[in-house]
Amino acid sequence: MFDVHAMRRQFPILAREVHGRPLVYLDNAATTQKPRAVIDAERHYYEFQNANIHRGVHALSQEATDAFEGARDKVRNFLKAPQREEIIFTRGATEAINLVAHSWGRANLKSGDEILISEMEHHANIVPWQLLCEATGAVLKVIPIDERGALVPGAFESLLGPRTRLVGITQVSNALGTVNPVADIIRKSHAAGALVLVDGAQAVAHLPVDVKALDCDFYVFSGHKLYGPTGIGVLYGKREHLEKMPPYQGGGDMIAQVTFKKTTYNELPYKFEAGTPHIAGAVGLGAAIDFVQSVGLETIAAHEDALLVQATRLASGFEGLQVIGTAPGKASILSFVMKGVHPHDIGTILDSEGVAIRTGHHCAMPVMDHYHLPATARASFALYNTPDEVDALFRALRRVEELFLK
Fold first, then answer.
1. 133-145: burial string, b at 16+ Cβ within 10 Å, e else
2. Tens digits of per-residue pLDDT, 142-188?
3. What's the pLDDT score for residue 1?
4. CA dihedral sign of residues 303, 307, 308, 312
5. Residues 67 and 188 in one domain
6. Residue 95 to residue 39: CA distance in whole angstroms
7. Which of 262, 294, 326 is the last residue of a domain?
8. Number of neighbours of residue 196 by Cβ within 10 angstroms
9. Cα separation of 303 and 308, whole Å?
10. Are residues 352 and 304 in the same domain?
């Protein structure tokens, strides 16, 4: 049996109060809170192992290197990647997407080639491709979504064509919670000769991921949405692509030999890891993966799904509240608006009640444009949230109703 109250005791921040009330933290799609195991892992690194990696023969450097590379092995196992050399540490999903756009894209795209993304993408999976199109003359095409927040049936297939070189698709929408059929998209894209990048930033904390089974070409995620530190993320790429891609940045550790006439580059994965990396962040990410795997993603998903069902039921009985994003397959996110109340006012009143949600466009302005909205309020659930906290959310929303609508 999953004991959510025992789980909560592993997260120190959940014991605090906000504005004199117990914290109800429902902003997990923006960033998750950190368990004691992650905090302790980073502190242990800084207290006992702090040194630069790959460069020293002294004991601290070797221990730091082992801890950093051990984290890479944990990521490889977590994603079920075939080889550890296919795991690149980045600052986050955003940098990982930019790395692929800059390195793979500029080397492979030409005028008239097409990149296909969806209308529900985070800005991080839109803007890098726009910049790439401006630089190469490639064309960006967009798969539309319907009023439920799902991909319009048949639209992807109609846009996929002989000029499509890459498909960039989110596995789980950060603004809507929609779970996309990425395995089917990958299969059809490969049949058309296109590569696929999957944005897994909102997926890895909720769904088991097997990049080998998916057969995606690239997969990206950020550590801070997986109960890990900020400033650390991952790019998985098939070795056959990474070997051919030029370096993204130049500097230390990504080189084999440097002369003023010619520089040769390091082997994978180091070719894409210029400079001193976020060593403590990688160690913390490894600890976060250990933590999540100790609980089990299936257990986490079942708990979060129950919370989402509860929240959706309460929302359906709340007059004047409209859920934005009602696709059949959803994960852990309830976005909504209240008639006559701006989302920012909702967020402010909820904060005064100790309830933390996200309000705004969620770095998904095209989604807001689709629904003709300036913003939404978004509650997002994690493994430490409770049914009582869902009830607290809706009690606070009744307070909003009293202040603005009565």
1. beebebeeebbeb
2. 999 999 999 999 999 999 999 999 999 999 999 999 999 999 999 99
3. 80
4. positive
5. yes
6. 24
7. 294
8. 22
9. 9
10. yes
349 with 201, same domain: the answer is no
| Structure token pair of residue 273 | 């890891």
Q: Which residues in 324-333 are b (16+ Cβ under 10 Å) and which e?
A: bbbbeebbbb
Q: What integer pLDDT is reported at residue 405 of this predicted model? A: 82
Domain that holds residue 125: 39-294
Q: Is the pLDDT of residue 80 over 90?
A: yes
Same domain, 52 and 12: no
Q: Are residues 268 and 284 in the same domain?
A: yes
The two three-digit tokens of residue 15, written as one number: 């014991």
- Give how many domains the chain has, as a whole number: 2
Question: What CATH number did the domain enclosing 101 receive?
Answer: 3.40.640.10
Asked whether the predicted pLDDT for residue 406 surpasses 80, the reply is no
DSSP characters for 333-381? EEEEEETTB-HHHHHHHHHHTTEE-EEE-TT-HHHHHHHT-S-EEEEE-
Model confidence pTM above 0.85 = yes
Domain boundary among the residues 234, 259, 294 is at 294
User: Could you give the residue numbers annotated as active site?
Assistant: 363
**Helical axes 297-316 vs 387-405, angle rounded to 10°:** 30
Largest Cα–Cα distance of the chain, in whole Å? 75
